[in-house]
Specification:
It is elongated and about 70 Å long. Helices cover 39% and strands 17% of the residues. It contains 15 helices and 15 strands. The protein has two domains: 172 residues, Phosphoglycerate kinase, N-terminal domain (Rossmann fold, 3-Layer(aba) Sandwich); 199 residues, 3-Layer(aba) Sandwich (Rossmann fold). The chain has 387 residues and is an alpha/beta fold.
């Protein structure tokens, strides 16, 4: 994977039929708020191929494994959005009816294939079944480009095509790898700050474990912070947690103590009594959240503390919002943290965004994407490869 010869940037593909596997597994909410990160990720690669007179076929999936066509998971909307970014028409076809569409492609044409998850052959464990499913693409395709960072390598569209066609990693995939290498090899400036939040506690614990030897400090917000506080004996209102989760957090807290790494938690929160009514948020010291309240955002004193750390850091990885950012009455913490990282850190600081929820927050709250050095399209794969 680290061999430059396997990267599109290190070769010239001219006048070929190129099959590109993308990661377009975009939650409906992200599309709704205008988070087109995964669509934008493949645009430079496609433009490069178009400029060299290639015919481009895009394969992708979205949503669960379905075995049949389900309208809400169609790639039709994504196809039109991609067309806008490319400033050209993107043709569209179902995988099993794709033969003629592929045959009659002209140079510079772009063809998107409907959601591969509508076909059980895509994720079959039988090689022969997968091979037959990919026949149209292996018969006419000359080059395979992998832009499917975070997609299962055992899917037919990756397993078969990468074994039968000359293969390269796309321009965005290379950016993912280079960012991971930069972090994992320690070629970063200190202080190194990890910012975590969101709802997925176990994935954030994994991220902390992967990076705890490299980072200087960790700040925690969102639902994850409430679990950390609970593990330290602080009652967190109506939030309840599994005993096994709390045990895992206590192990991480002990690890941080052993390594002399500081984990900073919120000192105040905005809370509500009813999750269907966010207009009556109250600011409360975190130690005094009563049993009839939900904590929905970090408070102003926490923001002051977190801002000081962010503005003094030279490397920042941000994974997860600070509260329920979808509601305008509980999004101030996430918006402020995003703005601090994007705009207030030193100009030469290295800043990475991980996760669908984080990129959705960046889009919804109109935080400048260009201020971040890298926005990963798969936090799970990113963290996995950090090992």
């Amino acid at each position: 994977m680290n061999d430059d010869k396997n990267y599109l940037s290190s070769t010239k593909i001219d006048s070929k039929v190129v099959v590109l596997r993308a990661n377009l597994d975009i939650p409906a909410f992200n599309l709704q708020v205008g988070d087109h990160t995964k669509i934008q990720a493949i645009v430079p690669t496609i433009n490069s191929l178009i400029a060299n007179n290639c015919k481009v076929i895009i394969l992708a999936h979205c949503g669960p494994q379905l075995d049949e066509h389900v309208d809400e998971f169609s790639l039709m909307d994504i196809r039109f959005l991609l067309g806008k970014y490319l400033a050209k028409q993107v043709k569209f076809v179902n995988a099993k009816q794709s033969l003629n569409s592929i045959k009659y492609l002209e140079p510079k044409d772009v063809l998107m294939v409907e959601n591969l998850h509508f076909n059980p052959e895509e994720y079959s464990s039988e090689y022969a079944v997968q091979e037959k499913f990919m026949h149209n693409f292996t018969s006419f395709g000359e080059v395979f480009i992998n832009e499917a960072f975070g997609v299962n390598d055992n899917y037919a569209s990756i397993r078969i095509l990468s074994s039968k066609l000359k293969s390269y990693y796309g321009l965005h995939y290379e950016k993912e790898i280079q960012s991971i290498l930069k972090i994992s090899t320690g070629k970063l400036n200190s202080p190194f700050l990890l910012v975590v939040g969101g709802n997925n506690i176990l994935s954030k614990l994994t991220l902390i474990r992967k990076l705890i030897n490299k980072v200087d400090k960790i700040i925690v917000g969102g639902y994850v912070a409430l679990a950390f506080l609970y593990a330290k004996g602080v009652e967190c209102g109506l939030c309840k947690f599994e005993e096994s989760t709390i045990n895992e957090i206590q192990n991480v807290l002990q690890l941080a103590k052993d390594l002399h790494k500081e984990i900073l938690l919120p000192i105040d929160h905005y809370c509500v009594k009813n999750l269907s009514n966010y207009t009556s948020t109250v600011e409360i010291n975190t130690q005094h959240i009563s049993g009839d309240l939900y904590a929905v955002d970090i408070g102003p004193n926490t923001l002051i503390m977190f801002r000081e750390l962010i503005e003094s850091s030279s490397t920042i990885i941000w994974s997860g919002p600070m509260g329920i950012f979808e509601n305008e009455n509980s999004n101030k913490g996430t918006e402020a943290i995003g703005e601090y990282i994007a705009l207030s850190t030193p100009k030469d600081a290295y800043k990475v965004v991980l996760g669908d929820a984080t990129s959705a927050a960046v889009a919804l709250l109109k935080i400048k994407q260009k201020r971040f050095d890298h926005i990963s399209i798969s936090s799970q794969k990113f963290v996995e490869l950090l090992a």
